Amino acid sequence: MAAVAALGLNLVGCKPKDAGSAVSGDAAEKVYVAPGKHDEFYNIVSGGFNGQMSVYGIPSGRLLKIVPVFSVFPENGWGYSEESKPMLNTSHGEVPWDDLHHIALSTTNGEHDGRWAFGNANNTPRVARVSLSSFRTEEILELPNSAGNHSSPFITENTEYVIAGTRFSVPTDNNADVPISTFKQNFKGYISFINVDKNTGRMGIAFQLKTPGVSFDLARAGKGKSHGWFFFSTYNTEQANTLLEVNASQKDKDFILAVNWKKAEEYLKQGKGRKEPAKYAHNLYDEKTHTATSTIMNEVITLDPKECPGIVYFIPCPKSPHGCDVDPTGEYIVGSGKLAAVIPVFSFDKLQKAIADKTFDGDFDGIPVVKYEAALYGEVQKPGLGPLHTEFDGQGNAITSFFVSSELVKWNIKDLKVLDRVPTYYSVGHLSIPGGPTKKPHGKYVIAYNKITKDRYLPTGPELAQSAQLYDISGDKMKLLLDFPTVGEPHYAEAIPAALIAKNSTKIYKIEENGHKYAAKGEKEAKVVREGNKVHVYITSIRSHFTPDNIEGVKLGDEVYFHVTNLEQDWDVPHGFAVKGGDNAEILIMPGETQTLRWKPNRVGVVPIYCTDFCSALHQEMQGYVRVSPAGSNVQLTWGTGKNPVAEAEKKVAKK
Ligand code: K7E
Ligand code: CUA
Q1: Which of ligand 2's atoms lies nearest the C-alpha of 543?
Q2: Where does this protein chiefly localize (predicted)?
Q3: What per-residue confidence (pLDDT) applies to 4?
């Protein structure tokens, strides 16, 4: 137990000595973005336990948007509207929440192309793709044979693949009822290779690599000379299934797993893949029908490296590695052992030579282990305590985050010398340099995503906002410029020049292209249709009224579907829609779009509906009524907008 206590103490972050130190005099000027001016970078930030992505401007730190991904978001109806519900479907049914840790922005030739942001669901394993034009989640793909999708999503140079490694090794889905104590025999670590369509971004699981049962933590693709390879940090190579805090920290070294995915592709072509039954959801949002669909898939192709020599190798890495990062040239692979005293830097060339010469140190569960020294380029000595993640500035330097000693440390990749260190407030997790994981980092800033906030802001009860910190890295010394609070608990984030994204932003959806089954593309198409106990309301919104805004003939026991089409064709004119007593949320309808709110009235009366988004001077007038009558009542189904709409509609009905 003494060991546990000692370890526990060690891992709690400590406060840097000069906590609260002043920023340099010109800091304010460097982060000041004048009113009406735009930021230089978009910062796409993971939401951690809120399951969302958020978008900030850098250098101002201003929050621009929250993009719901894996979690329901009542603010705009994500997960509440009928159209978006299928996005949260999984093989377990609807899962309304997840834990999003990592962002991967799509690249072409290893450089940001500004098309998509990928994010991982850590709890119920899924990968999402968010459009950087509409800032909406377009696709969510569930991953079978996985548990705790932490080593995810990471992308190859041309976004050929998004990969996702399982954090928990688990028994294969179709042989799952085994004793936990049979970990070593039955538990496997699966890595999913998800292919991404060049034009549409559409994802699919190309294959899964079935590896020995270890925990995958993080990963990076090779680039340049190492394009075609992938590197994963692993821990729990002790293969413990209980008290991992102690039992997974026994070995002096864990592993980095090097995967030659080009070679895996060759084996697949030779038919070495095995089709295995698997159940997982594939959810797609269609911008034309404004509707998501969820398809349950039944099969996945697996590759067993034991049957495919030459695709995977283990490299020893001290100790409990967390981050595994590849420098812009693709030559250097940086491991960050949370419990290690050094930062090991591996050489891709040396790794290739060691593989060719078979400079191995035996094997681990049938996979060759390359000798540590044979793959090692060198070690950064005395870098700090608890290294977690490394990013690159594009000037030949790396910056590593240290959780325990609560600092960012800049070091030179070639000579492995520490150049500079700055404290973080407090206990930094991930860090992000704009373009840091790409072949051409944009540099200029580093942002620290801190795990502990304490006294940095006005106190807000037991829970404080997480804190991000922006540093200028354009000179020799890193300089703190700004603290800004964040939503959720950010882990990784990426920043990308605004110029790559802003010009492509979606402004409206063309009403004539609206392919929604229940769209009313003009007020003339507005109507109410009864199908048994289902009542479909085709309702339009335009400043500042709904058509229809008076509806009678709804009865207790009915299920009402308000299909709201926003007829506006102007940027930034969404309308909202809410109904009193509704058991879900509001919906927010973008110009040209149709969204549906389901409502099951549970009492007799006249129920108000209204627009929730302040859309015009007469926004407050944008409202209506629905009359709910007892089941079996003979009130006619009538509707309208205008002068006594219901009375007029009744007259028409009477004439027929
Ligand atoms: Cu927070 Cu990337 Cu989940 Cu490190 S991980 S900090
Ligand atoms: Cu429409 Cu307020």
Answers
A1: 1
A2: other
A3: 35
Query: How remote is the CA of residue 491 from the centroid of ligand 1, in Å?
Result: 5
pLDDT tens across 431-465, in order?
Answer: 999 999 999 999 999 999 999 999 999 999 999 99
| Ligand 1 contacts CB of residue 167 (under 6 A) | no
**CATH code for the domain of 417:** 2.130.10.10
Q: What percent of the chain has pLDDT over 70?
A: 96
Judge if the beta carbon of residue 322 lies within 6 A of ligand 1: yes
Digit-coded pLDDT (tens) for 466-525: 999 999 999 999 999 999 999 999 999 999 999 999 999 999 999 999 999 999 999 999
- Cα 138 to Cα 416: distance, rounded to the nearest angstrom: 42
430 pocket-lining for ligand 1 (C-beta < 6 Å): yes
Beta strands in 236-286 (DSSP E): 254-260, 274-286
pLDDT band at 218 (very low <50, low <70, confident <90, very high): very high
Which residues have CB under 8 Å from 326's CB, separation 6+?
A: 220, 221, 222, 223, 226, 231, 332, 333, 334, 437
> Which atom of ligand 2 is nearest to 614's Cα?
2
Share of the chain above pLDDT 90, in %: 88
Q: Return the residue whose CA atom lies nearest to atom 3 of ligand 1.
A: 101
Domain region containing 564: 513-655
pLDDT (mean) for 556-581: 98
User: Which residue's CA is the nearest one to ligand 2's atom 1?
Assistant: 575
Structure tokens at 367: 């996979």
Q: Which residue in this structure is represented by tokens 């070593």?
A: 184
Q: The domain spanning residue 621 has which CATH number?
A: 2.60.40.420
- The answer to whether residue 5 sits within a structural domain is no
**Which residue in this structure is represented by tokens 């229809």?**
548
Domain assignment present for 467: yes
Rounded-to-integer distance, Cα 101 and Cα 492, Å: 6
Does the beta carbon of 613 sit less than 6 angstroms from any atom of ligand 2?
Answer: yes
As for how many domains the chain has, the answer is: 2
**Are both 316 and 368 inside the same structural domain?**
yes
545 lines ligand 2 (CB under 6 A): no
CA of residue 246 to ligand 2 center, whole Å: 57
Residue 281 belongs to a domain: yes
Number of the ligand 2 atom closest to the C-alpha atom of 619: 2
Ligand 1 atom having least distance to the Cα of 102: 2
Q: Shortest CA distance to 159 belongs to which of 489, 479, 437, 409?
A: 437
- State the pTM of this model: 0.95
Q: Are residues 543 and 636 in the same domain?
A: yes
Ligand nearest to the CA of 167: 1
d(CA 440, CA 427): 28
304 ligand 2 Cβ < 6 A: no
